[in-house]
Amino acid sequence: MQLLANIIVLGAIYALISCGYVLIYRVSRVLNLAHGELMMVGAYLLLTTAGMIPNPWIAIPVAGLLSLAMGALVYLLLMRRMTGESVLAAILTTIALGILLRGVVVIFFSAAHQYPSVPLGLHASSVEVLPGARISSLSLVLVVVTALVYGSLFAFLRLSRWGLRMRAAGQNPLLAAQRGINLHGIYAMVWGIAIFTGSIAGMLISLDAGLDQTLIMIGLKAFPGALVGGLDSLLGALVGSLIVAAAEVLLIQYVNPLLADVVPFLILIAMLVFRPWGLFGTREALDRV
Amino acid sequence: MSKTKLLALILAAAALLALPFTVSGAWMDIANQILLASIGALALMLLTGFAGQISLGHAGLLAAGAFTAGILSRELGAPFWVGIPAAGLTGALLGVIFGLPSLRLRGIYLAVSTLALHFLVVYLGGEYETRRGFSTGILIDPPMVFGIELWDPFAWYPVLLVGAILTYALSRNLLKSRTGRAWAAIHDTEPVAAALGINVARTKLWAFVITSAITAMAGALFAYYRGFVSIEAFSLFVTIQYVAMIIIGGMGSLTGAVLGAAFVTLLPHLIEGATRYLPTGGAISGSVFAMNYAAFGLIMIAFLVFEPGGLMGIARRLKGRG
Amino acid sequence: MAFLEVKDLHVSYQRAITALTGVSFTMEEGQIMAILGANGAGKTTTLRALSGFIGLDNARVTKGRIGFDGQDLTRRPPYEVTRQGVVLVPERDKVFPNLSVHENLEVVTSRASGTRRSELTDLVYTRFPRLAQLRKREAGLLSGGERQMLALGSAIVCAPRLLLIDELSLGLAPVIVEEIVEHLRVIRQDLSLTILLVEQSAAVAFRLADSAVVLEHGEVALTGTSEALQSDSAVQNAYLGTGTEGRRSYRAVAEARRLAEQEGRA
Ligand SMILES: Nc1ncnc2c1ncn2[C@@H]1O[C@H](COP(=O)(O)OP(=O)(O)O)[C@@H](O)[C@H]1O
Ligand SMILES: [Mg+2]
């Protein structure tokens, strides 16, 4: 039971992060390898707002909005220039951005382990969610938030006009532009949303476990979930994250704790060998890169 | 070859030969690091800049070579002349593994598959370290090369210089050979290459095998040079540094790879030098590491966005104007 | 000033391959004009340059000017051009395959007001009743003819004033082409559209168009009204394949005709 609870919590963490990879890839065909760093910056934004406004109901939404703006700005100021460039150039630009952010974060916030929960006066308590399975209250919040985020994303993409445009731009950017859709607006929006969801994940993790650069690795480890499910499928990201989380929790428990950092990538390799387009992805995605 | 080019070549050769007699040990060490980085960067340039195959697994390959040399030296007392070829062999084998996904995958899928393999190699290295109780790394005795014990940067310099020059010459010849032309063909368009009668799968695998073997040998040299191997030294950041070298140097140019290697190796020293002259020098010296990251990211972005041709692109433009 | 004025248009791909080298022509409002020419002559490139390139195309207008209704449309991105009322029906990839028929119409973003949009959508469904039956169908599952209708329909919802159509008849059975041409005629009346169309099939082109431009190797080789071009035996020989002399270059045709005229004058 405890294992099941752990799997669900870890799966929710990965899922909340990996939907950002999927959104950006699905709409703009860019793999954002700075996602981990950007979500870390999001968490540091919370540390900053928490320092100024010690009220979680204000500090968290403000930091969320700031990270939304940060995502849009990353596209408008940087990634926008990479449209039409090679796949490699776009990936490398995100990697370079990640390196830049790692440095900037240490310069401004130091490398020390810090707790945004302290100024906000939040204390995680332990809750019994299943018979015999306890998780921290913040983990419970995280699971609920992940469910909410996925619900809203599905609704947004299926039902809203902007979601429709995003799907169209993802399928055929040229035709979308010819049908009057401003691609830069769409891409800025999807970067904003992706970084917003990633940052929410970063904030919730750091409220629970504190904040330092290890958050980046969590961000990177969430990527295999997205690929296992299929890089262009949101449902895939959810299922893939749960699969990766299950494998990770079980292997750590029964085989070797040192495996923690490598399990997601082992699964990724297996997936690339047998079904590179993922469980729910479309096969064409392979040729479109 | 034009007269000016010949003159430049002679000057460069003279400078390289005179270097050990004019610089301090610290600078000799930096020069050696540049030579080491050049070998790895040349290999990556062949793979990405010429054969068009993306790889984010470079640090993993360096690590594999370094560990091969380290393990052979530590466990079996194997000498330098066994360690280096053994590392090359390990690299070639890993090259097949790294290259297999490329038969089916392109673009970002290939990038992430090599990235995943990096983590796998790093895990295996870490696992070895803990299992054998070398949790802080493996110590390697200074190797004997032609009867000389390589124990300081000055002794190493000629060996690394020869290694770098050999790699450069080998790369040049490769590019002129059939293999090199086949790489150029698959770089441009695979279907066309296939139509020209080129075996695309074999060409790609060869590209991975050859460059991985060179990279692993560079990793082994690095291990011998440092006298110490630890998996800590092969983080993802190392991969990024190598990718940065070929970008900053200029995609599709061997000279660019060497220039990029020099630039990236020197950068931290330049930054350290610069912070010393800043009025707040003392205050931020604690975050020199962070300054490095930030500057490195900025410079990489600047090249990617404004000068995709890299240093070679700048050089070509200056020449065109002059 | 002409409704559409294309002047000395040069386009190159990947900074190297020049596809157009100085294309000029003008159109008046209400006209239907055809661009003819062999494969690779630059017809698609001309329409694409009018509708705007995006970064992914790796194509660039290197010289020249595109004027539309008093505005400069040169090098403007496609979404701005579309919102100005210049709308392209592309040669291929003309619908969003994973969106339903209705979503394909709905996704369009234009300057038209909400009421105008629903009027136009209704018009599309009235004129193409087949689309109305298929509203919920994924566009990727449509037949070639249905897909062409949907492509036309989604262009119509963009509220075009100048419609650019690339290869209306490509890959479609003659009966289907017939049907679509009829629909297009009616819609053109409804909305008093100006149309610039690219055709491989000169027969189709001359049925719709009142004038034509013939492209060859990225340049304009001939222009004229449909009647003039059709009755010109040189064009028939070179292009329509109805003459007796076999195929020749348009330029050679134009040259031969010029010589003939000079001889006649002399
Ligand atoms: N995406 C592209 N990249 C490079 N060259 C292209 C591209 N598209 C078209 N061309 C070249 O431009 C020229 C004109 O092509 P196009 O406009 O498609 O001709 P048409 O539509 O008349 O058949 C051809 O020589 C073609 O090879
Ligand atoms: Mg065409």
Could you give the topology of this structure?
The complex is a heterotrimer of chains A (289), B (322) and C (266).
Chain A lengths: L1 H27 L6 H18 L3 H23 L8 H23 L7 H4 L5 E5 L2 E4 H23 L1 H11 L1 H6 L4 H27 L4 H8 L1 H7 L4 H21 L8 H12 L10 H4 L1
Antiparallel strand pairs in A: 1-2
Helix pairs in contact in A: 1-6, 1-7, 1-9, 1-11, 1-12, 2-3, 2-4, 2-9, 2-10, 3-9, 6-7, 6-9, 7-9, 11-12, 11-13
Chain B lengths: L2 H20 L2 H26 L7 H19 L3 H25 L2 H25 L6 E2 L4 E2 L2 E2 L3 H24 L1 H11 L1 H6 L4 H27 L1 E2 L6 H14 L4 H24 L3 H4 L3 H19 L3 H12 L1
Antiparallel strand pairs in B: 1-4, 2-3
Chain C lengths: L3 E10 L3 E11 L4 E6 L5 H9 L7 E10 L2 E2 L5 H6 L2 E4 L11 H6 L7 H14 L1 H5 L10 H14 L4 E5 L7 H18 L2 E5 L3 H7 L2 E6 L2 E7 H6 L1 H8 L9 H16 L1
Parallel strand pairs in C: 3-8, 3-9, 6-7, 7-8
Antiparallel strand pairs in C: 1-2, 1-4, 4-5, 9-10
The complex binds adenosine-5'-diphosphate (ADP) and magnesium ion.
Magnesium ion binds next to helix 1 of chain C.
Describe the structure.
The complex is a heterotrimer of chains A (about 290), B (about 325) and C (about 270). Chain A is about 75% helix and about 5% strand. With about 290 residues, chain A is mainly α. Chain A has one domain (about 15-215). A two-stranded antiparallel ribbon of chain A has the order 1-2. The longest helix of chain A is centred in the first third of the chain and has 27 residues, at about 1-30. Chain A is globular. The mean pLDDT of chain A is about 90. Helices cover about 80% and strands about 0% of the residues of chain B. Chain B is built from 14 helices and four strands. Chain B has helices at about 5-20, 25-50, 60-75, 80-105, 105-130, 155-175, 180-190, 190-195, 200-225, 235-250, 255-275, 280-285, 290-305, 310-320, and strands spanning about 140, 145, 150, 230. In chain B, strand 2 and strand 3 (about 150) form a beta hairpin. In chain B, helix 2 packs antiparallel against helix 9 (about 200-225), helix 3 packs parallel to helix 5 and helix 7 crosses helix 9 (about 200-225). The radius of gyration of chain B is 20 Å and the shape is globular. The model of chain B has no long low-confidence stretch (mean pLDDT about 85). Chain C is globular, with a radius of gyration of 19 Å. The model of chain C is unreliable at about 240-245 (pLDDT under 50). Chain C has a single domain (about 5-230), classed as P-loop containing nucleotide triphosphate hydrolases (Rossmann fold), CATH 3.40.50.300. Chain C has a six-stranded mixed sheet with strand order 6-7-8-3-9-10, sandwiched between helices. The chains are: A mainly alpha (about 290), B mainly alpha (about 325), C alpha/beta (about 270). The complex binds adenosine-5'-diphosphate (ADP) and magnesium ion. Magnesium ion binds near residues 43, 44 and 91 of chain C.
